[in-house]
Amino acid sequence: MSHHIGAEPGQIAETVLMPGDPLRAKWIAETFLEGAECYSTVRNMFGFTGQYKGHRISIQGSGMGMPSASIYTHELLAEYGVKTIVRVGSAGSIQDDVNVRDVVIGIGAATDSSMNTNRFAGQLSYAPVADYGLLSAAAEIAAGREGTTHVGQILSSDVFYGDSLDTYKKAAEYGVLAVEMEAAALYTLAAKFKARALTICTISDHIFKNEALPADQRERTFGDMVEIALEAVTR
């Protein structure tokens, strides 16, 4: 039994969707899974396992930021035998043509975090990337649905309330689509444990335009992202 999840062996499926918000994990489980059962309430970071179209799927909250997401990702991969993790969360756009409500699928995750610098003792600028099979499946599924989807580079930041937007502006110049806070850690740990990982985000706000998705519209829009993820992992 792990320190932070606390599930018994066999309670967690080999495929996990991982939102940051534990209440969103609960909503996903109750909305999309059949027979969902809660396997963890440790620190109120809920985890559920149920069925989606005959496939066993777990939903596990990760908390905000790479330190928290790393804890849950590590325990899922190292202690529960999870083989696939798809992060489903929100992101802030830094491109003019990536708008609120759009979906972004992350090929790779640049980061301003020192986590990988420390991991590789400053000797390697590691480039964390998604699993190609999951990426291509999600992109194909999204292309057949209504709404706008972008596939490209994202930025995993350690800072939510920063003093300057200069780093984001520079990242945008180099083609980064959006900023979130977990993908780089997820992709790195998945590579270490030879697992599959993908990040799919709904654009909840635009960092440079001061636009944000109203709270009453988030569930419907986030639901589109979750369906793309579920269809991709069960293909």
UniProtKB/TrEMBL annotation:
<comment type="similarity">
    <text>Belongs to the PNP/UDP phosphorylase family.</text>
</comment>
<dbReference type="GO" id="GO:0005829">
    <property type="term" value="C:cytosol"/>
</dbReference>
<dbReference type="InterPro" id="IPR000845">
    <property type="entry name" value="Nucleoside_phosphorylase_d"/>
</dbReference>
<dbReference type="InterPro" id="IPR018016">
    <property type="entry name" value="Nucleoside_phosphorylase_CS"/>
</dbReference>
<dbReference type="Pfam" id="PF01048">
    <property type="entry name" value="PNP_UDP_1"/>
</dbReference>
<dbReference type="InterPro" id="IPR004402">
    <property type="entry name" value="DeoD-type"/>
</dbReference>
<dbReference type="GO" id="GO:0006152">
    <property type="term" value="P:purine nucleoside catabolic process"/>
</dbReference>
<protein>
    <recommendedName>
        <fullName>Uridine phosphorylase</fullName>
        <ecNumber>2.4.2.3</ecNumber>
    </recommendedName>
</protein>
<dbReference type="GO" id="GO:0004731">
    <property type="term" value="F:purine-nucleoside phosphorylase activity"/>
</dbReference>
<dbReference type="InterPro" id="IPR035994">
    <property type="entry name" value="Nucleoside_phosphorylase_sf"/>
</dbReference>
<dbReference type="GO" id="GO:0004850">
    <property type="term" value="F:uridine phosphorylase activity"/>
</dbReference>
<feature type="domain" description="Nucleoside phosphorylase">
    <location>
        <begin position="16"/>
        <end position="227"/>
    </location>
</feature>
<keyword id="KW-0328">Glycosyltransferase</keyword>
<keyword id="KW-0808">Transferase</keyword>
